[in-house]
């Protein structure tokens, strides 16, 4: 039997990253993208020392039941609502994510969605492809809403939120944000001169609102009917954070009834399913959770996940770069000393 550590990779990954893992470990990488049934997930995790998983893999107490082998789970993402950190910590398993390497690309994409939704790019393209242009177009057709000179709101001013805010300077926009606590002044200055306001003020004053907050039980439906009712009727809402932060049915109703100009959504409650009411609307731009999907960002995320696993298993020197439950590392160190 091989004494090499085993690493399971739950999704197809870049060949050079798999080769890097294979220099140090026996790699079992899934060749096809698919969902793993709970029983299969448990079996794969039980047979590995380390795992690289995607957001669709829910790693909770049930997935870890009876697992005596696994030492590290590295998420392919900065968000980690698919990982039950308490269960992983109880089991002495390190959890890691991929922060920072995706900040700029994800912020770029927030602006892509905002611009596309505000200026109706998706609907206009569908109309053109359907051959309607030769039928005639009025001077006052396809009127969108401006970004420049308006107020950008950012709900969730973490690293990605700040990267979104920084870009507002190019559009001469005022930036408001809401977080549990205001940022230090220097960070506000670096983030487009962003000003902290309470959530209701953010909703009332933003011409365009970008959601960049993590998904937690508290942030579920942070934007529902009541919050949408506070927003300006010509506002555009962008969600690049997580499905479930927005009540999709309430949003669809607001968009349908003209209580909001448009929305750009990259994430959905219960994705890959998309609420049928959203699919029926023209004033919403929809994309399949691709905000971090630039070639460079996705590659850097995969590399970081691999380094997390290799370091956690002691196959390369140094600490894992992005631990989520570092108490597990400390406990491991104590155990080795005794
Ligand atoms: C996904 C993300 O990881 O990092 C996150 O939290 O949501 C994304 O970057 C990516 O879409 C792969 O599923």
UniProtKB/TrEMBL annotation:
Top-level taxonomic group: Bacteria
Q: Listed GO molecular functions? A: glyoxylate reductase (NADPH) activity; hydroxypyruvate reductase [NAD(P)H] activity; NAD binding
Residue ranges of every copy of the D-isomer specific 2-hydroxyacid dehydrogenase NAD-binding domain listed in the record: 112-291
Q: Which residues form the D-isomer specific 2-hydroxyacid dehydrogenase catalytic domain?
A: 9-313
Which keywords does this chain's UniProt record carry? NAD, Oxidoreductase
Can you name a GO cellular component term?
Answer: cytosol
Kindly indicate whether the keyword Ion transport belongs to this entry: no
Q: Per the similarity annotation, which family is this?
A: Belongs to the D-isomer specific 2-hydroxyacid dehydrogenase family.
Protein known as: Gluconate 2-dehydrogenase
């Amino acid at each position: 039997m091989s004494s090499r550590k085993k690493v399971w990779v739950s999704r197809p990954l870049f060949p050079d990253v798999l080769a890097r893992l294979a220099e140090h470990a026996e790699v079992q990488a899934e060749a096809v993208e698919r969902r793993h049934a709970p029983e299969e997930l448990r079996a794969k995790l039980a047979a590995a020392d380390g795992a690289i998983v995607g957001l669709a893999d829910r790693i909770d107490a049930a997935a870890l039941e009876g697992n005596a082998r696994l030492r590290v789970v590295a998420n392919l993402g900065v968000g980690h609502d698919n990982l039950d950190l308490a269960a992983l910590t109880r089991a002495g398993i390190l959890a890691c994510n991929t922060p920072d390497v995706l900040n700029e690309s994800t912020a770029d994409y927030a602006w892509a969605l905002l611009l596309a939704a505000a200026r109706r790019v998706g609907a206009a393209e569908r109309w053109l492809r359907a051959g309607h242009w030769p039928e005639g177009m009025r001077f006052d057709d396809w009127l969108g809403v401006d970004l420049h000179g308006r107020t950008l709101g950012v709900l969730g001013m973490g690293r990605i939120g700040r990267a979104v805010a920084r870009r507002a300077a190019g559009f001469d926009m005022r930036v408001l944000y809401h977080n549990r606590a205001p940022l230090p002044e220097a960070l506000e200055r670096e983030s487009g001169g962003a000003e902290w306001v309470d959530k209701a003020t953010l909703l009332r004053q933003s011409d365009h609102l970008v959601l960049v907050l993590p998904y937690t039980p508290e942030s579920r439906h942070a934007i529902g009917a009541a919050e949408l009712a506070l927003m300006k009727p010509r506002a555009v809402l962008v969600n690049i954070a997580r499905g479930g932060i927005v009540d999709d049915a309430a949003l669809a109703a607001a968009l349908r009834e003209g209580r909001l100009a448009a929305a750009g959504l990259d994430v959905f409650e219960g994705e890959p399913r998309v609420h049928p009411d959203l699919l029926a609307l023209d004033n919403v731009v929809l994309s399949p959770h691709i905000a971090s999907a630039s070639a460079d960002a996705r590659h850097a995320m995969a590399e970081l996940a691999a380094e997390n696993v290799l370091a956690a298993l002691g196959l390369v020197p140094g600490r894992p770069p992005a631990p989520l439950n570092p108490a597990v590392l400390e406990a491991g160190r104590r155990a080795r000393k005794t």
